[in-house]
Design brief:
Aspartate Aminotransferase, domain 1, 2 domains, three-stranded antiparallel beta sheet, alpha/beta, 16 strands, five-stranded mixed beta sheet, Aspartate Aminotransferase, domain 2, 38% helix, 15 helices
Length: 456
Amino acid sequence: MPKTMIEPFRIKSVEPIRMTTREERVRLLEEAKLNVFKLRAEDVLLDWLTDSGTGAMSSAQWAAIMLGDESYAGARSFFRLEAVLKDITGMAHLVPTHQGRAAEKVLFSAVCKQGDVVPNNCHFDTTRANLEFNGVEALDLVIAEGLQPSLIHPFKGNLDLEKLEDLLKKEGHRMPFGMITVTNNTGGGQPVSMANIRAVSALLKKYGKPFIMDVCRFSENAMFIKLREEGYQHKTIKEICQEMFSYADGCTMSAKKDGMVNMGGFIMLRDDRWLDAVRNMLILTEGFPTYGGLAGRDLEALAVGLVEGMDEDYLRYRLRTAEYLGEKLEAIGVGFVKPTGGHAVYLDAKTVLPDMPVEHYPAWSLCNALYLEGGIRGVEIGSVMFGKHLDDGTETYHSMELVRLAFPRRMYTQSHFDFAAEVIADVKANARHIRGVKITKQPKYLRHFTCECEWA
């Protein structure tokens, strides 16, 4: 067989990209207060800000939309999605939400109280913010290898079991549940092994604590397990997913990732211990329990997308795409989180801007440079996203300065990735001209979405 891995789909509809000039982008970024979130999408050439809800739906999903039952209560579209999720997760209770952060908000508000602590391998931005908003300490316990971008390890998303047990012994009275995120988005889209999921589950059960999984990219994680973990090479992706879910008591999901839809999310619960509280919070903030902030057509598209997302040919192509760009970066000497993750490539800004002080936000500055040079919009995962501006005016900084280039599903072709590699090479060659930034305006939570900056 040829070595080139082709896209396992044909393009049926296209959307034009407006080709901006560098001079235009300088002006547009200034108008956006040096924050790429504030750019208009039409002014971006390659929009790799996020893979959340930005992908292309299939013809089968668009057809399913026409079957949407828009009844307020008891719509058949809910029961169709419920059947699919019960089959995949083995859990009894579906609580739909309009997206992942809504699932987090509903679950955490119903279950957590001020002063609690919730461990995870790494909490992503909205997960952490929703916990902290409720007065809960969000604690990251990823293994040490997960904090070393250049180190090769097959499962850098694994949770440190010794640290988890130590926390359970000392602070178990404060812990309503434990979490793990698959794949570990904050740490480079890195997978979690089945052995680690099993061990975390057993440890939490030993101390009587429920186990909740953040499963935005559960299919990608399953594919990594199939490729890298002994004993899973001959199992189907669905079988691997079912085993992953079997160890958990519940899960939250932004279905805008491996659900292959533009909007949607859910909570699944194995038993009914929290069900009434969760549903009551859902009704208060999202909607009736059989639609939860979604239209019936959204439920139908998600029911199809969850199955499509487990297709092995698609997943091989998906993981290979990130690997392909990683090989290009290796050739030009740009550091990135190794091995490449499932949904994105994470550039290590410190390898491009080794002399830029952290208070000038190297990853944010590299993000701006990628837009100026080639119209590429990524997202900073560094000290703007995960640092904090304290009440005394000082700052805390993140352990890594990464730029995530997250790839919308079924959207871009190989030539787009070749173009991106050329842009990144040019940025690196001219790194001495990249300017740092300082923040001039910011909110208390999730400041990266709306903060304003100026050149340092």
